[in-house]
Amino acid sequence: SQELEQSPQSLIVQEGKNLTINCTSSKTLYGLYWYKQKYGEGLIFLMMLQKGGEEKSHEKITAKLDEKKQQSSLHITASQPSHAGIYLCGGRGSNYKLTFGKGTLLTVNP
Amino acid sequence: ETGVTQTPRHLVMGMTNKKSLKCEQHLGHNAMYWYKQSAKKPLELMFVYNFKEQTENNSVPSRFSPECPNSSHLFLHLHTLQPEDSALYLCASSQVRGVYNEQFFGPGTRLTVL
Hints:
Chain A has strands at 4-7, 10-14, 19-25, 31-37, 43-49, 55-58, 61-65, 71-76, 85-92, 98-100, 104-109. By secondary structure, chain A is mainly beta. In chain B, strands 2, 4, 5, 6, 9, 10 and 11 form a 7-stranded mixed sheet that branches. A 4-stranded antiparallel sheet of chain B has the order 1-3-8-7, with no helix packed on it. In chain B, a hairpin with a 2-residue loop joins β5 and β6. The relative contact order of chain B is 0.34. The A-B interface holds A 4, 30-31, 33, 35, 40-45, 48, 50, 88, 90, 92, 96-103 and B 2, 4, 6, 40-43, 45, 88, 90, 92, 99-100, 102-108, 110.
């Protein structure tokens, strides 16, 4: 079965700093999804990546999928307190099933 | 607001109680999902419905019983639960057409089993 490992598990940064969260799959990904979750709430869809080498940006968040389609990174530029939350990556394998990582807890200190 | 609503948001029940969780989507989607989110664990898929038909049951104990009367509504009926069933239960929806469509999640129901 496909497994997704996220690193780091948690991250504390000062407001204004850049940061990167990684997501590594044990198998080739046929779709990679990034979500954000406020504690105890639902997931908010951020971005989807499908092609090797693909990169997408929305406001100050950029997500990339490597050429081999097994690793993705989420980069936040000039972080703000509003970026705080849990970031989850979800990946589809060849069986189209969606598997999630355990999440990365981001704290942004003002 | 993601277009997916869940009620109740919080639920406390005893092990002998029977309760139901409700999910409704206003996005015109035709696939709906139940997930369980426990502390320190990845999100676990429980059930999948496509066009009201159950297409996946991820080895979920029979004390959880899903129901999908139409493409917009999904229920999870609960009975004789165990304390380890305490978790955040999330509902999601998506389009079926195209296997890579993203899922949209509701806010979840925080369930505590005493």
